[in-house]
Write a structure and sequence with these properties.
Layout: H1 3-30, H2 34-50, H3 52-69, H4 73-79, H5 83-98, E1 106-111, E2 117-124, E3 127-132, H6 137-148, E4 152-156, H7 162-179, E5 186-188, H8 194-200, E6 209-213, H9 216-225, E7 238-242, H10 248-260, E8 269-275, H11 276-292, E9 296-299, H12 301-306, E10 311-312, H13 315-319, E11 326-332, H14 335-345, E12 350-354, H15 358-367, E13 372-375, E14 395-396, E15 404-405, E16 412-419
Parallel strand pairs: 3-4, 3-6, 4-5, 7-8, 7-12, 8-11, 9-10, 9-11, 12-13
Antiparallel strand pairs: 1-2, 2-16, 14-15
Helix pairs in contact: 1-8, 2-5, 2-7, 3-7, 5-6, 6-7, 10-11
Amino acid sequence: MNTAENHIADIQAYMKTLGHQARAAAQVMSRSTTAQKNAALLAIAESVNESRHDLLLANQQDLEAGRIQGLEAALMDRLELNQTRIDTMIEGLRQVAALPDPVGEVSDLKYRPSGIQVGRMRVPLGVIGIIYESRPNVTAEAASLCLKSGNATILRGGSEALRSNQAIAACISAGLRQAGLDHHAVQVLDRTDREAVGALITMQEYVDVIVPRGGKGLIERISREARVPVIKHLDGNCHVYVDDDADIDKALRVAVNAKTQRYGTCCTMESLLVAEAMAEEFLPLVAEKYRQHHVEMRGCERCRAIVAEAIPATEQDWETEYLAPIVSIKVVSGLEAAIAHINTYSSRHTDAIMTNNYQRAQRFLREVDSSSVMINASTRFADGFEYGLGAEIGISTDKLHARGPVGLEGLTSQKYIVLGDGHTRQ
């Protein structure tokens, strides 16, 4: 074999080994107790806390490499670890440990006329492959949810975060060993070859589901090439609609927070819709706030008549997830036009309405076809931590199995159970 063939063969052998180890670990995890899983999560949290220096050193090396490569500001923001983000990582691990264990939960148990009882039991999915970019804290979040839900996982982070991910992986391995669980329950790839991803998403004998977290290009590739079921969302083109019956001060706070609290997340607002009856009063106020945050405004013709510095918005702007200090603004005739715009251009991730009108709020909830729909709240709340899930494995905009932030329950399935006492079918 030539060098390229040898390389591919090596990758395939490496991935097969990881798959075999993960499948064996999944069997162990499926019968582990809640106490064992919680002990592992708390041990991992303690290991992360004790390894702050190592984590920050590894992350600084990744950040320096990213600067040399010229990574975009949004990617650099996602890549960075600091004390606050490490604190959040630790809190997430502890919060997942405190959550109820869904595994083994029996629901809908009912007697049938034959005398048997039929119900459903919640069970782990098995082995979960997770492919993500930039954010190293995903390593801890994904591991925590997979462990608590009784699954094994294979994690493949981006090349830009390789050192950070390996440092976090060392903490996870230490915590699993301390709790007496198979350390192969969480395996983080030590290489970022494209061929490794290709192997992971086609290993049907070892992997039960794939969760991609990253840019649209990555997720499109996974969706196209995977032979394993995929839980995904392509992008986060999120909206806030300011109704003509909104509280202007609340609307202003939400429109600013949804856009500027963090630019590089999938639940950041990208398009602001304003009812025409509110435009003259509201747009100058929000434009001043965006100026203070150095947010570039791209507006429709009616918006630009009020906010002179807004540059013309194109059709592409309404479809774009910027992940940057840019916002598109459109003046709409009212609720019906806002809903139509959102259902046309939204990525079905998160959309919000600001209004004091109960009927309009309820109509918005019913008719906006997104995985999270909000009334009088910032789209930035759309993540697992804020929803009380402890953390999230990702946000699904699919309509089957899991939708919205995917926490513990989304990483399990249900099987029917039948209880009898020698019953036979007549």
